[in-house]
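Long-time lurker. I teach an intro course on protein structure, and each term I like to show students one example going from raw sequence to a predicted 3D structure in token notation. This year I'd like something fresh instead of my usual example. Would anyone be willing to generate the tokens for the chain below so I can use it in lecture? Attribution to the forum is fine with me.
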Amino acid sequence: MNNLGAVLFACSLPSLSSALPEFINAIPNGDKVIDPSGNPWPGVGHERSYGGGTLNPFGLDFKEAGYRWTQDLCRKDSDCDGLSNGEELGDPLCQWSQDSGELPQFDVGITHPGIADVERSTAASGASMKLDTCANFTEDDLPSDYISTSFVMPSYEVPSERTTYTKFAMKVDDGEDMYAVRFDPVIDQQELVHHILLYNCDYEPDEFLEPNTEASMPCSNLVFAWAVGGTSFCLPPKLGFEFVTASPWYLIDVHYDNPNGISGAKDKSGIKVTRVPKSSVANEGYQSASYLWVGAELDTVRVPPRREVYEVTAECTFDNIPDEGITVFSYLLHGHQIARKIWTEVKRPKFECPSFCTNNPDCEKCFTEDGCCGSRDENICFGEGQCCDRCDECEACERCYEKTTCNPGGSLDTTSSSSSSSFDLGCNTRYDFDLQETVPLQEFQKIYANDVLTTHCVYDSSERTSMAYGGDATEDEMCIAFYLFYPSPPPNAASSAVCLTEDTKLNAGDGAHTCNVPGQVGYDDSLCRDSGGSDQKYNKFGDLSTWLQVHIITMYMAWGFLFPLGVLIPMSFREAFEDDTKWFQLHRALQLLGLLLLLIGCSVAFANVSLHFSGSHQRLGLALFILALFQPLNAFCRPSREVDPDGLIPTFRRLWEIMHKNVGR
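-- Reply from a regular --
Happy to contribute to a lecture. Here you go:
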């Protein structure tokens, strides 16, 4: 085979062995997709990061959609991680199209639509696997004097700049203390609002009585967080987050993402908070929920520049937790722009079961389903007989028995209640400053006074040129985990739930971690597509669609056999023919047959692929197609080879031979 034929044969292979570049442009933010570990994944539809081989679930769905970004493909959750393909690729409203020439709604927080990312679905959608905390919420269960207050922007004109963080403060004057029981996102400009944080302030933030994009954050008491793709958040029954008259100032911090430079848009987005007066539910067994703070004192946080991985740890203990422990039901992890992973590890020392627990036969009945269902707390257990008077004498015995749904404070080790244990109370190894949210736990967790809680924060400062210090400003850093728990400590001991340790360890590890949050499970791919869907992946030639099979066969026959053989005959076998016209007839027949197959192969490709010339494979194919058409036209116009009176071949003939032979080779 001649050199050109070999090259052309090789050039026909990339269509099978690598991701087609034009497909990157056919989906929103196709060039920004990363896997759950943060690595680039240009072969979005393939199981190999750089494409080729088998298709992942998104690749199969993309093929079924005709290799186009459609409404159905956008709304589908190909990898079954609780996030639609549109939410993962920055087009949550399914408005983007390739032909529009506009940028997608968002180009931050982009994840992989074909690889399930349980951590991001937890952090970005409000719950692991879209846990709906408001499924059983009804306003009929609230007292008639409940209040819904919307903390929203005052028709704020969003700047046309790419990214804007705008803060706005407001005062709540209820006249009495309230319980917040539900938080709802109020999203006005859906194409611009990316995430919202709600804070309580210790004093009047007078610089933010009008929307402000410049001044530093004055408030540090985070109340609630929402990010694109998130939903409403409801506290468990008969629990409320306190809104007290002594601290009436609140502030919302809204991140606007405006890649299309939209101007003149006025926004009224924010958070609606449903609250009930504490006096109206005083006799209904309501309990106050509070935040447990586990993190580093701001002035102890320092992250040096040019470090791809830099881990900071903050260790805390809470000696004032009562013997029966506290119950954590939700969490919010908080760092700033260079934070990449945050988790809190709970180390629980060996527990010796008190003799009064083991010697009292009634205690076992207090923590089993056929007894009091493991807890006398009706916020945990529902049904008849869950509260037993005889269990009063069994306080702090939960850990003597197996941990179950009915006994959330039970032993993690079913074989021995005296074993030490460790687990993550909250975790996100794909932390994104633009995807912060309040996350409900699948399984509520008990925390005890002798537990050691360590919050780990991993940063990537590789693009920073100076030290990042702890602080409230966006360009500063934080390392704090907030855990919603009940019952709240008494007012005079509220500070006992706040640990911002000065004993912060810098450069404390290698940053490697796999989340170990009890109840946080993986995904079942059969929920999204037929369990046999993997059989449709392109492992064999026979699995390809008919048009693609025709395209491949005709291209291989033309470029890999007919064209090279047609070129070799005049180059190497011309003298083997006694009749000087025979080699030419065979040469012409082979080239024309190759041209016919080339026309068939290109025609089926043109008819079945809408994106003809946006990738290197297509552009190269077009160039070769033009050259192939040029050769027979060139042959048809060849000048005469008759020599002139001096015995020389005419100049035009010599030029033609040089061009025809070299292009053919």
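Some talking points for your students: Residues 46 and 56 are 5 Å apart (CA to CA). The chain has 13 helices and 23 strands.
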